[in-house]
Amino acid sequence: MDIFELRALVKNIEYKDWTFVVKSFGLGDMYLQVRFKTVNCRTGEPYEANGRKWLISQHAVASEVVGTAMKAVLTAEEHEIRECFKFRGKAVYNPHINIEALIAVSDSLEVRPPKPPKNPDCKIKGCPCQLERELSIPELYELEDNHPPLIG
């Protein structure tokens, strides 16, 4: 696939009002990149964003290119979500957080507490007290109303 075939193929891809940019570099190397209008989550100012560059092989087939375009969209949307999703007013999953800052907090882990002890008074067949596995939400709702209190 050459750059002209790639551009012709990509012209058939649509997502919102986004643009799919195709460029070549080097000897036959090509890339695909999404471009879209968005709003800066920190400043509220509108701007035009560019996603990362996705390498397209000159040996790529149509389904690979379309799949790569889909991945470009998914990755760009996730990037935007990570920039704008906030907890206590902070973008805690922001993809632009400095790597050294991430390293500094990388040992600050949060884990679930151990499972509560089994209730010896529980005789309900299939109750979480009697199982070594976690139950699904529907299974838990089924048991919710007729379970004796847990010890501990």
If you had to describe this structure to a student in words, what would you say it looks like?
- This protein has 2 domains: 3-103, no CATH class; 115-146, no CATH class.
- Strands 1, 2, 3 and 4 form a 4-stranded antiparallel sheet that branches.
- It is built from 4 helices and 4 strands.
- The chain is an alpha+beta fold.
- 30% of the residues lie in helices and 17% in strands.
What's the structural blueprint in terms of helices and strands?
Blueprint: H1 3-10, E1 19-25, E2 29-39, E3 46-50, E4 54-56, H2 62-84, H3 99-105, H4 137-144
List keywords for this structure.
152 residues; alpha+beta; 2 domains; four-stranded antiparallel beta sheet
Largest sheet: 4 strands, antiparallel
Mean pLDDT: 88
Strand content: 15-25%
| Count of structural domains | 2
**Radius of gyration computed on alpha carbons:** 25 Å
Structural class: alpha+beta
Compute the number of helices. 4
Low-pLDDT parts are none
**Secondary-structure element order, as H and E?**
HEEEEHHH
In helices, the fraction of residues equals: 25-40%
Measure the end-to-end span. 66 Å
The number of E-state strands comes to 4
Short description:
The protein is of the alpha+beta class. The chain is built from four helices and four strands; from the N terminus they run H-E-E-E-E-H-H-H. Strands 1, 2, 3 and 4 form a four-stranded antiparallel β-sheet that branches.
